[in-house]
Amino acid sequence: MTAGFDPIDESRRQWVLRGWEDAADGMSLVISVMRVHQLFLAQVDRVLRPLSLTFSRYEVLALLSFTRRGSLPMNKVTKRLQVHATSTTNSVDRLEAAGLARRRPHPEDGRTTLVEITEEGRTLVARATDELNRSVFQHPGIPEEGVRDVLQRVTELRSFLEGDLADPSP
């Protein structure tokens, strides 16, 4: 971004000029959040790339490492990470190929496949988490006292939007 010029502020100005004043702040919020998402993802990718991980694969490993047995049914991974089943399958395929996770049949339900973290996966996710904590999560870019306030607002927004998406009416 050029010093002194903010493209989102300019978009807001254009919205107002075109008579969309009632939507200008909302448009600015949506575009700002989307840009912050891009910037956070770039930070996370810079940390994970040297470890040969993507954020999607990191999330699967982290989730598995938090479980008592180190394994979950594939459909639970999908639900907990709030992603499409294809994304879970793709991530697990890559983790399996790298020796970081493995699939195995569920011992009590023949229709279910478990995904399980390997020792190598545990070691890598612990290292990745340490790096992410140090490089990204401990200092997200705003003063510490503002983090909880922003988090509360984002949680409210997420809750509203998730409810809105669940409602099939226009």
Notes on the protein architecture:
There is one protein chain. With 170 residues, this protein is mostly helical. The chain is built from seven helices and three strands; from the N terminus they run αααβααββαα. The chain has helices at 7-17, 21-48, 55-66, 74-81, 85-97, 119-137, 144-166, and strands at residues 71-73, 101-105, 113-117. The chain has a three-stranded antiparallel sheet. Helix 2 (21-48) crosses helix 6. The chain is globular and about 60 Å long. The protein starts with 6 loop residues before the first helix and ends with a helix. The model has no long low-confidence stretch (mean pLDDT 93).
Find the count of extended strands (DSSP E, 2+ residues): 3
What is the H/E string? HHHEHHEEHH
- The overall pLDDT, averaged over residues, is 93
Summed up, the helix count is 7
> How much strand?
5-15%
**Could you estimate the helical fraction of the residues in percent?**
55-70%
Widest sheet: strand ordering: 1-3-2
Distance between the ends: 37 Å
Write the layout of secondary structure elements.
Layout: H1 7-17, H2 21-48, H3 55-66, E1 71-73, H4 74-81, H5 85-97, E2 101-105, E3 113-117, H6 119-137, H7 144-166
Antiparallel strand pairs: 1-3, 2-3
